[in-house]
Amino acid sequence: MVIPLENVWKFFATYAQVDEWKHPGTQVWFMRHAHAEESAEEPRTKDTPLTERGCEEISTAAFRESVHRIHPDVIVVSDFVRAQQTAQRVKEILREDLQKDVEIVVEEGL
Prior knowledge:
Blueprint: H1 2-18, H2 52-57, H3 61-70, E1 74-78, H4 81-98, E2 103-107
Parallel strand pairs: 1-2
């Protein structure tokens, strides 16, 4: 579901930029979770956590900088464990660096 939604957003964003359209309200950002463990014996499921590599990715200065730039008020995530782990890290970064508390909303079936 995320890929078609992302394509819709990119189409809109491209033509909004061409037309110099501005909306003073809500900003929407899409973020994928970091890497998940996967093996031949056990394919990824909702309960598959982030890999060590994924945990390293969400601990980089580049990730921290992107969180500062986005600066969300609410994070809506799927019920996948790795998505929730990534959202939790975003929340921690905002709390540590900007003393900002954000709400995480878990939506089943995203």
